[in-house]
Records
---
Amino acid sequence: MLLQQQRKRSRIVKMADSGVTDGNEKKGDIERAKNEGKELTKEEKQRLRKEKKQQKKSKEKKDDKAIQESGKETKGDSSAVSAPQPSTQSTAQKVPAPVSVPAPEAPTPAEKPPKSKAELKAERRARQEAERASKQSKKGDPGPQGAVSKSKAATNELQPVKRLPEHIQVDNPDVLKKLAKKLERQQIPLRLDYGYKVSLFSHLHQYSRKAPLTQQLSIPSTVIHPAIVRLGLQYSQGIVAGSNARSIALLHAFKQVIRDYTTPPNEELSRDLVNRLKPYISFLNQCRPLSASMGNAIKYVKKEISNIPSQCKEEEAKRKLLFCIEWYIKEKIILAAKAIAESSIEKISDGDVILIYGCSSLVNHILCEALEKNRKFRVIVVDSRPRLEGREALRRLVQRGISCTYVLISAVSYILPEVSKVFLGAHALLANGYVMSRVGTSQIALVAKAFNVPVLVCCETYKFCERVQTDSFVSNELDDPDDLIVTRNGQTHLEHWQQEPPLGLLNLVYDVTPPDFVDLVITELGMIPCTSVPVVLRVKNVDQ
Amino acid sequence: MPGPDKETDLTERVEAFLSDLKRGGSGAGPLRGSAETARETTALLRKITAQARWSSAGDLMEIIRKEGRRMTAAQPSETTVGNMIRRVLKIIREEYARSRGSSEEADQQESLHKLLTSGGLSEENFRQHFAPLKANVIEAINELLTELEGTTDNISMQALEHIHSNEVIMTIGRSRTVEAFLRDAARKRKFHVIVAECAPFCQGHEMATNLSKAGIETTVIADAAIFAVMSRVNKVIIGTQTVLANGGLRAVNGTHTLALAAKHHSTPLIVCAPMFKLSPQFPNEEDTFHKFVSPHEVLPFTEGEILSKVNVHCPVFDYVPPELITLFISNIGGHAPSYIYRLMSELYHPEDHEL
């Protein structure tokens, strides 16, 4: 009995991974199809799916605990993939398409909050019935798009509570176990936490930069594309940093993956490629938690892939995807930066003293454009330990010939009386109007408010995020704590901090700025107040 | 008595002290705490009183004022020197008045009535000679020295009144007073301390290691994270370099940001400052308020290519206005910032505010 269950589990897992059943009954059909033509016809596929569903229904009735667990895992997997995916595929996998299209950005496979098995089964059954009914009524339509739009329309009104991403549940051992199992299945090594974590942040990961994930990989890695391995290493060592840079690097790596991809026989490009990308994304997530912009980019890529019509030839499909990715980069990042620069330059007048913090590619671009339009201004660059990113911004601005002043963040209340405007970059804009950005941004906004200096945040719309957050604790990133150690006058006080049990070092990466500190947000859609972010998100979703 | 020898010995001591002050302030010499400076100043003033040649209180005051001006000019940011000089001048006035037999109160209060009728204190010129004046003054200075030695203990004794268990306390940089305060409380209560490291000097690191050695759970954060963690902090306890006459502070840079963040979250800000840090200066003097050190701490010489084209500032102090402060804890108890002006009038004579 146990062996049978295990076999069934492995079969379901395989089905979940490959998206195509390997059941013995189907093999005959597939052989026939292969002999007849390159790809299965539509009717064949629908029949296959129906038969699979019948199979699974009978298995479900056995109410096996193991199946439930693996079912939960596959659900977790497919939910990450699924938001724009055709509901047909997900029902074929026995898991319902997670309903909301603007699903949680964290593309990290989400884990369902613990519910009773009976509830889960009932929910799934109900959703399957609904989708089957809708599908049958739409048999004539160009399948995937219709179903997707219907489910989208149905679910836009009521969005269920989002599942919690894994990376903020480190203190929950069940979640960790599931993550370990999933990574094992995808053959990606698990990265271990490092050092003593401050108790307030025990729910977050804390990694050491000296132990990158790639050390645990075999070379050459057969599971992960080398471009992705290189990218992961660049992320974890901080070589590629900044949300725009990370997104662009990610998209370029995906382009490389698509170029090198060949559809295996009996597979459909739209499904298989998405499944190929899943372990890559887990790997990148282990190297460094994904940013909101990266999450949105990944969602877009997956949607484009799954929208490839099945009769498309492989070469044409790949060309199309490459074109889509290039369009995304051009439109959402490069042209958006141009539009934002044009609007911002109206806000810069001659004689201004502008304060910037850290190194934001967008803000640097704006200042360089303003210089070219012959505005006279000078810049004060504020920097903070331990990242000292402001030095990079300083170099870029000085090379262009902008006159700059440089201070550390503790001197900001000394220098603020001279300042006329503050320009800040953002990592993400949350749905409740809070600005998530590099740690220290909220402090600058606070002091600027106390001195009555206007604060302008520049952010492209692809960084808008559906999450809400009110403080910097619940969701954040902990960087390597050893970065805080410094040697001064020949003394390194914190060198042996690990040996002093009550001593902890905290190296936060992000913080959230409340909307009352921010006067204006400049996006490519115009200049909006902080509180209009959910409006923009809604408009974007309707467009898509 | 070998007069000339004593005199040269005295001038040598004074010169040595002055050069120490000059070196200590630039950050290159050994960093000494304000308490040490205060004690050394007072000891030096006692020596001057004992060994210099003077016949009346006025002469002594002149000598002390002259030396005092030289000392404050050596290191203007070290205000404890000036404070001690003013304390000693007040002591001399008191002793003189006592010797004369008149009550102190009437002499020193500038009431409107006195201003109109008698033309003020300018009549008093301290020319009378009193034999026991020298001994009295030296005795009073000794009392002052004892008071100075006990300040840190007096402040730490009040720790348990202000810290309860399971609190999260935030502090910035390194203050010996606050360290003693927290260690005293840690003997009986368990709490958590977050130390902001205060770049570029990073004195917070030393503070954190000292506190963790005393068994207190400590966390070191970067300056940039002060606002981010402030929502979980129950109290902010800081030290300061000087307490100004209006109740404001001249504290290490980054303190103003800390105070603003505490005000935003309605967290009480407690300043542990002994009385010798109270100075009759106001924060209006723009050019003397700030002190700057070498900017290579901020932008090192390794960034040579851009160094010449960039202005780099490295201020040492920050002004914190009195509205952001909740409580002062000093060796004579706790006070609100609005009470500071009254304490000042007890410590210093108004005519000594300008040395």
---
Amino acid sequence: MEGCSKLLDLIPKDREWLLRRDKQRSHGCSEEKGLELRLGPPGGGDEDTGSREREDSILSLGYFSNNSTCGAKRGFKDTVGLPVMAKESSQPCSNKVVDSSEKKAFSPASADTAVPNSSQKRTAPAPVVGWPPIRSFRKNLASSSSSKQALESQNAVPSKVSGEKPVESGRKGLFVKINMDGVPIGRKVDLAAYDSYEKLSIAVDELFRGLLAAQRDSSAGGIQNKQEGEKVITGLLDGSGEYTLVYEDNEGDRVLVGDVPWHMFVSTVKRLRVLKSSELSSLRLGSKQEKIPPLR
Amino acid sequence: MREDRPPPTPSRGGAYSPPPPDQVLENVLEHVLQFLTFRRDRNAAALVCRSWHRAEALTRLELFIGNCYAVAPRRAMERFRRATAVTIKGKPRFADFNLMPPDWGANFTPWVTFMAQCYRALEKLCLKRMFVTDEDLELLASFPSFRELVLICCDGFGTSGLAVVASKCRKLRVLDLIEDEVTDDEIDWISCFPEGETCLESLIFDCVECPIYFEALERLVARSPSLKKLKLNRYVSIVQLYRLMIRAPQLTHLGTGSFSPSEIVAQGDQEPDYSSAFDACRSLVCLSGFREIVPDYLPAIYPVCANLTSLNFSYANISAEQLRSVIRYCHKLQIFWVLDTVCDAGLQAVAATCKDLRELRVFPIDAREDSEAPVSDVGLLAISEGCRKLQSILYFCQRMTNAAVIAMSENCPELVVFRLCIMGRHLPDHVTREPMDEGFGAIVKNCKKLTRLATSGLLTDRAFSYIGQYGKLVRTLSVAFAGDSDTGLKYVLEGCPRLQKLEIRDSPFGDSALRTGLHRYYNMRFLWMSSCRLTRRGCKEIAQQMPHLVVEMINGEEEEVKDDYVDTLYMYRSLDGPRADAPSFVTIL
């Protein structure tokens, strides 16, 4: 696993490393500010820099230095799309947003907050295929009306039609493979579990963030707190993140995710890829309607 | 073999010539062997010598195929020529959770085709996780003695197949459809049962998600005097249930359907006396259904509670208080399935009354990782303290402690099945923040009869060292999102001497660990590993070293294998080599 050895080099051994990195990061951050796309008020660094407990998932801001990233926790509403340009790595995330007052962001107290965060119950993580292990007819029990809805779509049982992928089937779901650059193991997502690009983006972040952290943890061989090591993957949909979500449609073309209405996307998508935004940069300037020719 | 020898003919003079001595032995053997019913005993007898092998093959009436691809239909049926009851299992269990693409296989057609030649006298068939078509059912229905069909977690057929079975199987006694996916072909299959008295003993169709024509069902029940088991689907309202119950007071097993009225019942409407209907069912021991329960109707079942040995509330969204009102009467209860809406308090009520409980299953009403599951270590502890005879538990929760699991291991030494599902991945003990190693370790150490274990929560390799070392009788092990390294899997493969079925997902186990099991894969039914660290090369190595192992690599889509990593490995022994019906997304190494 060649990719893994790179990750090993980046595994933080202690907080001190984290502090050191963060200082580098702040330097890098100020250079990058000019390139940032955000929805926040202009001119500001990030206004409220209080460390936030991680209550919601999940899209939060990434930070970057040359070879490390760290995420700060923040609700998705506040700002969107600080460019995340660090190489892949996974480290404990500090809770502080980097701004002009970075130093106080890296006090040990803030790093401490990362620890209890990880042990808090996560809210709204992306659903993983087949987990929890409950058969589909036991889902949707919360109201009988919703189980009746599930019935409608269940009647289109795809199992009798060989080769066809089920679309919008309440029972079987819609699983597409998703691969991320730099992560050797692909995953699967159930598109039927989402109804918007935003939720899908959250799901993708959750899915691969855990994978990166799991790779790191298992290589380290210890019982690391698996939650704290995860770097957030952001900006998947608008090209502002380190990675961008693209998909291959039923004609074999690669398309940026987010262009067409959700239902149309779901009916044509064949597989998903999380690509490095840097590889797509030449196309980002053009209209999003353009299709990306297959890269391989 | 008896068949090959001509029967002893009396000689011309009328004198009787006794059969040759070895035939006497065979006759005696066959008479004796027919008392052997357990598969394991029969398998042992068959290994004694050739004549025992033959005799056993001729006297085996129940054929069990644990993996439909482990043996070709022809080989199985030619050895056991006289079997009249067949059980076949197909897909591995993780297929239930969408971890396997549809159309993977487990087709029943090749089996039934051969049965049509060899097993025309077939009486009973049980299929689990098989793909069964309407045509297959039609062929089955043509077997003249066929009387019992049990389909569990199957798919591929619809109500048209059921209609054929209903109309053509004149001797049908049992039609049990359990957790199947049945397409609605808009055929009123209930009406297809022939007129006149039927010999139906069991009719279970609670999983069939299609409306039925109630009057036909009512007439059917009325003309089925032997009917003991009836499990209705959720399209049967409580009023209709009442009408059926008064026609069938002899029922022992009842699935109540929706247990709610079909329309809004206004206050003051004349409703039947549901309680009296239950009261009339003196033999009722097993109650289930409650698919869309209106809890106001719960008191109707009070009259039968004291006799119940099995109660399935796993679709009933009821509170602790509502449960308490029922469970306090259920002193004889042995099997109890429930939703976690009853909370820890509900489980405490169960623990207080059901001293004879053997099997408990607690399902989540909201099966998501982040849901607020209302049951926890508190409920588990209460159950362990109240239900000392517990043998089997399946428990979904969000919060658990090692202490509660350890307590259960000490309080319930009869445990045979322990399946704990902490729904949030990698969650530790919510009090001590430690991994759940010690809890599961205690289970394998203290529950000496344990044969089935499913793990969850944050687990390190240490947990697996416990399992490997102490899980002496464990046959089935399910692992998800657990372990640190190859060492974990190595512990299991080098320990657990009785391991038969190993299913693992999303755990960091790779080729090196896989290799450590080479000495035992022929003695296992299957190994499933998905989203682990296996490479194609590693799997190929195994395939090359073990020619009788079928090593399937299953990719999610039908595309090329882009990287060397294997999505899903499913491997199993087979007497007849790799299957011929593998779809394109399966690569057999």
---
Amino acid sequence: MLAAGLVLVLALAAGQGQEQGAVRGVLREELLLQPLPVGDVAAVFQFRTRWDADLQRGAVSHYRLFPKALGQLVAAHGVRELHLALTQGFWRTQSWGQPPLGAPAGAELWAWFQDSVPDVDKAWKEVSNILSGIFCASLNFIDSTNTVIPTASFKPLGTTNGTDHRLLRYAVLPREVVCTENLTPWKKLLPCGSKAGLAVLLKAERLFHSSYHSQAVHIRPICRDASCLTVSWELRQTLTVVFDSFTSIQGKKDWSLFKMFSRTLTDACPLASESKVYVDISPKNKEKELLEVTPTPTSVHEAIVQGDKRTYAVYDLLSPLLFNASRSLNVQLKWKRPQDSSELSTPVLHAQRYVSGYGLQTGEISTLIHNTHPYRAFPVLLLETVPWYLRLYVHTLTIITKGKENKPSYIHYEPAQDRQRPHLLEMLIQLPANSATKISIQFERALLKWTEYPPDPNHGFYVSSSVLSALVPSVIAMKDVDVEESPLFASLFPSSDGSSYFVRLYTEPLLVNLPTPDFSMPYNVICLTCTVVAVCYGSFYNLLTRTFHVEEPGRGGLAKRLANVIRRIRGVPPL
Amino acid sequence: MAAPLVLVVLVAVTVRAALYRSSLAAFISERVEVASPLNAWKRVVEGLALLDLGISPYSGAIFHETPLIIYLFHFLIEYAEMVFMITDILTAVALYLAIQDYNKVVFKKQKLLIELDKYAPDVAELIRTPMEMHYIPLKVALFYLLNPYTVMSCVAKSTCAINNTIIAFFILATIRGSAFLSAVFLALATYQSLYPITLFAPALLYLLQRQFIPIKPKSKSFWLYTVQYVALYLCSLVVIICLSFFLLNSWDFIPSVYGFILSVPDLTPNIGLFWYFFAEMFEHFSLFFVCVFQINVFFYTIPLAIKLKEHPVFFMFVQLAIISIFKSYPTVGDVALYMAFFPVWNHLYRFLRNIFILSCLLIICSLLFPVLWHLWIYAGSANSNFYYAITLTFNIGQILLVSDYFYAFLRREYYLTHGLHLTRQDGTEAMLVLK
């Protein structure tokens, strides 16, 4: 009896063990080091956990690699897809090239919900509040005044059945600052934390001493296999940091992992099935090699990324050969020859945005989009979210390309409601080859109530970055990437055909001043205005309730009588 | 009389046309004293542009005009300058004809009261003669057309001019005695900007007087006429609102227009008292003070009706002034409308106490408005308090001016019935006090 019971228990345990193995999850970690044209270097960390469980249906109680906080968030609120990015700094597309993973300055959160969710706005509010707690960021300031529902710019990045844009919510908090307080909980979500693997390089004092720092979390459902009958969940945690060669690496263009992060890699994360470092050593010039990497990489990988053929030196941290020579891996890069300024290639699509005008009454927002492709024209979707207190006048919207007016083929405009929702302007603009398009729209600045100004009101108000989404035609034909086989940096955006790649660019955020009332004056203003109203009331009251009388000589008041008494004493005639 | 009027009209048209062609036109259109969120031309163009894009103009917070304006300018947007010049001319002509008729009524009433011996014997110099009243209608048209406020309002293409035209037609219809037209125009005026509903009382009083119906609650004919007038007014209002509904197939315009006028969400500075008050208001008391300020416009009607029931046209003037001063988004176009009536009360000049200082005050404030706006918004060397101070002073000036005219009016009435040379019981010269 006891033996039978024991056997049963063992069988159950074995069975559960097998099941656990299936829903365990797969972790891949990757670091991409990319030298940028001007001598800076970008480091992109990606940690991808793939979990073959159905978060929506089954009541999942055992979390291993997938963090429980995010898993419960997705399950409880019917989230289909979630993308959160916290960014400090601005990606200079013109000098650095296309960003591997773009993000606007501040905090950006967008989510697709399941169509079974009854009240999307309520779920959105709860999701933003929970994420605010998880990441110690002020995402609780996301409310209806900065949330928009884009109709075309944001399509789901995971597998999905339908795309009813009413299930999408997008919000940006441009004033949000990123600091160590946000990095720590982000690191805690990693399966190995910051103790092993690539995450040991993430030291706050080096990461925030950079030109650009962006950390993001992307959760999306992906096909479990080629037939796509069941879904798995993918969590990608990405961190992009750009080190300025002059401040971080003391002016010399040679850099190493130790110089950038003040740490070196000692081992791979034990829970990871793949742990690699990719260094972009693509020769800009076909003949001469530009860079030299030490130690020798374990392999060399070639891929077509963003329309360019690139060569990567790969260091596989799980390969036993790597740590043979030394206990730690410190990738060093030396420039073989100085970079020629003629080799700096401008990216095919880049944009700038600025505010013009003078005074605190009106202004104009202008966006300049450049298409530097020599012969291909392509359309770009522009999404602008402008807060309600900058009242846009859509009849002043002008789009000029090469001196002529360019009419957008699709325009979706949702005017703002005061204190309720922001302006949303989405346009599909055709960019001719080798041209610069200027889109400008005039606005009026509103006077807000004194309690609605943030601390330091004369600093100004931020307008969040506008989003440019385009399928940029690529020179080289690209083949379809298999998500499991290719490096992570090539597989975030699904590409539909081989002739173009998807690019999402963000423009600069704007800082706009509004007229301010005098904050020390509430009591004075109430008193003075009520005095004026009382003057009117008093005058009219007198005129309406009193009538004219001939003045009768009165007995005189007390003062007069007293004066008469004194006069009588003196012997003078009375008043 | 027609020739001088035509001359005045021509001069006015020339002035406006010259300003339209000059560079001042753009500058004047931007001025907050002339264009408010309710009647700025930029917003009308924006509303029509939104309609072209297929979005309801009322879905945003930019457009607060009534559907009538959409309908009017949908066809006439090309000829906007002509439309505004024509509205100004129509207002002036309507006021001219109205004051002409009113003078006849005044003269007839005065004759009746003299024959009934209601006047004291020594008030000969206070009696008005047709000779002196001859040029008053022309002066009214002149005051309206060549008033810098009106000219600026026209050049800025502010729809306040259209509101003024409707009110002028209402005054003409009332003084002519046509209850139906008076009710229709009053309904239109209320539909356009809500506050003219307070002009219902003076119009009713005037029409009752004209029909020789005594204003006594017990009289049956009083109630009959009142109910008739009320019914006409309400029916026309309902018809106009329903027509507006059918224009865009939604009731969106009601919160956008009337909700906006009553709840004052937009705090763009203007010449009124509301904007800074609500910008500095504690959030807790916001609703209370909005209600107080709105009631303040409406509640002078009943007391004025009781006091001025014999003089409904003067009541109308005071009521117009109160609307212009205390409405939620006043502009100088509203001020120009009641200022056009000053020539009608020319005979009160000798009893006005502070006319010099008040007119200086108003002129100086009008000149300081753009200066202090520039210092605050463009130069950055002043702050909002400077502009607010001029707003306060300007409104005090207007209030004191209107109450001065009211005082002069009441004083003249007293002298008419009690005699000009007042003596006390002991024979010495008496002083007149308000007690």
---
Amino acid sequence: MTVAAGAGYALIALGPAFSLFAGVIARKPFLVLTLLSSTLFWLVSLIVLSGIWRGFLPLKSGAWWPYVILILTSVAFQEGVRLVFWRLYKKVEEMLDAFADRIAKPRLCLTDKMLISLAGGLGHGLAHAVFFCLSLLTPAFGQATFYVERCSRMPFFLVSAIISLGFLVIHTFSMIIAFNGYGERKKSDQIFVPVIHLIAAVMTLINLAPGGCLIGTPLLCVMAALTLQYSWRMVGQRLTEHEH
Amino acid sequence: MADGGPAPAVAVPVPVPGGGAPATILDSLGEDITRIVGPVSTCMLIVVLLVSILSSPSSPSPLTAALNTASAAGAGDDLTSALITAGTFVVCVTAATFLMALLFYFRCTPCLRAYMGFSAIWVLLALGGQICLLLLSRLRLPLDAVSFALLLPNAVAALAVAAVSPASVPIALHQAALLAIAVLTAFWFTLLPEWTTWALLVAMAVYDLGAVLIPGGPLRVLLELAMERNEEIPALIYEARPVDPRHGQNWRLWASRQPPAGDFDPTSTVEVLGTRSNSADLDPSLRQFLVPNLSSNPANAQAREVLALPETRVDIAALRVPLIQPQPDRTREDSDSHDEDGIGLGSSGAIKLGLGDFIFYSVLVGRAAMYDYMTVYACYLAIIGGLGVTLLLLAFFRKALPALPVSITLGVLFYVLTRTLLENFVMQCSTNLLMF
């Protein structure tokens, strides 16, 4: 539906990511590099997942339980990848601290660490939005639009853009929560992230039912808002207790 | 609540609201890498845009139509002819690089300069003009022939001067001119048939690996010559703006360096000299190679198209020459021991990347764009990842390294994996509106 519609869908999915990038990440080159490497990381995990599932595709469209298994395995794999990312990040943090000591500059402060985890999360969210939404948007720049049978009220592109927006928020802020949880060894944070991810992914299963996208998509946005609020509260707590 | 007064000698960073936090290393770390990743990304983006606009099947450009009719019925686009073409190209590039090393050895500065200027003008005028015409016709922009005939040579002359003599123009213009040359050459390469492009990329990656690391390789010979004479390698090199490590800000130091007397400026600004074997004058062997092919049978259509652009091919030879330069990197050891002398050493930590690397990265991404955008994103991330790995290796080994092999390998690998594995998976999930 013309370039304007295509650009509109892209901005729905990626608008907050652009503002986060321009406002926070572009100012510090290291965060840009973190973003690029975490995007690459997520892409590699997605390729591994698709390699594992290659033999089982295409799934029969009638049954819904293969999709459940797909979602469960994918979320479990990605949470495992998040742990690996955390390990890598710890190594990089050690190297950065050693470097800072050598050139007699202050070590990474709390804000810096949170910024790095924000960049990592944004990389994951950006990769999700790019591969699940943006790369399928090419027909939207043309002259027609596309509706999926099970969701006949909204164009496919709009639904996928909104879902990508929800997941972008979830990925970005759950990375901050997760890094904080792993660093402080707080069980509540560590549990929160996989649970939210799982619930959000399972919620997209509602889209399998006819007309389900009208319910599933707003619920996903509720999950995104929940993640945002939890992250806000956690960061506020950390910063105030750090200042005192 | 601000912690108020001057911090003690121990640097304890207190998050002061309002941006008053002490500058940590995170502010400026990694800046030189970003200054290379940025232009590489821009070049790839412009090539992808050009490919998307100009290669749509609805209105095939006259150029691709001509190429398609030449290699009609798929006679040309198979593996063997692709390999032959790629092999021919690599052989010619090797020969041209050896010739360049020879000329550099005999210090033929005028011919190097003249040829550099000629090739820049040719790429910008012929290729650039043709692409402008294609864009004008495709986008139906209203521009009459007289204005075009006035604008194009002027723009070409300005860009060519900017590309070839960087000392006389602002650095932004110089870098823009280099990027323009890279974009035009890369777009031209994407017009080759598919198998030929892939074979060419892989062949160039292997050539790069051999030419730099094997002791008798042409690029290594050239590098050693340049290093023992302490001169710059004569070719089009993209140099990122150096950053002063002592200040946290982006202070442009390149202008403050003192260029030594003489033609060679071994410091910041990019070198002017370039050599090229002009197929008309200096390299009769190439011309002989060219003539019989013009009358060859259609089975050699591939080779004909590529060899019909000898300047392009040899351009690539010269553009391929400079790799990532082993400048003394902006590392801990240097800045510790040379604090007083900081300006000279610190600012020479700029990363140099040969224009040929820009071109081949963009060719890979442009060819991926001809399939689908998902492959574009995957290949882009793979190339940037490969570039990062190469830069890490550069910081580790501190000698000239080839920039192509890692990135091209990763790019081709990710292209294949995306096309075979990822696309099905993502389509299956997305069309059912299942995301995670």
